[in-house]
Amino acid sequence: MSEHNTDTTTRSDTDEQSAEQRRSWTESSGSGTVNIQDLTKVYGDDGDELVAVDGMDLHIEAEEFVTVLGPSGCGKSTVMECIAGYLDPTEGEVLVNDEPVEGPDPSRGVVFQENRLFPWKTISENVRFGPQMRDDVDESRVASLFDQMGLSGFEDAYPHELSGGMQQRAELARLLANDPDIMLMDEPFSGLDAMTKELMQEKLLDVWEDDDRTVLFITHDVEEAILLADRVVVMTARPGQVKDVIDVDLERPRSTDIVTTDRFNELQRRASESIHDEAERAMEQAEGRV
Ligand SMILES: Nc1ncnc2c1ncn2[C@@H]1O[C@H](COP(=O)(O)OP(=O)(O)OP(=O)(O)O)[C@@H](O)[C@H]1O
């Protein structure tokens, strides 16, 4: 990551550092830490309550890439929305940079499976929207985001004129235009075809390697979770809690080729085993058997 590529630290030096070392580097930087403390979220009223998340604890270091795996309905999006400031916890709290989250903030950018681009605005207007609201448009930054996302020449196009992959790249550019410390990504690539998804994963890894950002990325895809992460958090079936945390000790920078290595397969097996029972329990819940 750029901050560490000082005169005395070459790119190849940093490439060889383990995920654990990466985390220890970032412990001192402070900006972008997330602390989830005893987080409980209950939906509904008296007599019709649903405990979505129950006493969840998780600490995420600044600049760490954490993926969250969990069965359907276990509370992944709920946790993310509490970090984003869209939802208030019922109990417990979320601290960002040691301060309680009290609402949405551009320093915490969110990407969903369905892009939230304004259909009536051009791609350029969409990307500039956040900075413009703060009267803080950096033209060279916007131009370099279009370049980085392979969108140059599409500035004046409308979202419906772009392919699904391009729309998600525009969504990423829109998010990055706000220069967030923390990127919250809720199954952002799950609606894409396999090849586009792979390209988007590589694009995201490039973006993350180049910048100093914390990423929390929700996915149902075990391979994607391992490929991207420093740590994979496996959640229990609802009510969601942390079941398991898997350290991904694969070298960086990574490309999608890494999925064929033995170590990758070991990690993938471990994550799949960890989630298997929870997925069964979630299915029983959905069928009303528990
Ligand atoms: N606004 C709401 N009102 C009532 N119940 C809700 C609300 N939002 C979510 N839930 C319920 O809370 C539980 C957790 O939902 P959440 O969307 O956080 O799970 P998830 O793990 O992200 O699910 P998925 O993987 O299917 O996207 C689910 O049972 C869901 O139906």
UniProtKB/TrEMBL annotation:
Keywords: ATP-binding, Nucleotide-binding, Transport. SUPFAM superfamilies: P-loop containing nucleoside triphosphate hydrolases. This is ABC transporter domain-containing protein. GO terms for molecular function: ATP binding; ATP hydrolysis activity. Coiled coil: none annotated. It comes from Halococcus thailandensis JCM 13552. Gene3D superfamilies: P-loop containing nucleotide triphosphate hydrolases (3.40.50.300). InterPro entries: AAA+_ATPase (IPR003593), ABC_transporter-like_ATP-bd (IPR003439), ABC_transporter-like_CS (IPR017871), ABC_transporter_ATP-bind (IPR050166), P-loop_NTPase (IPR027417). Residues 1-32 are annotated as: Disordered.
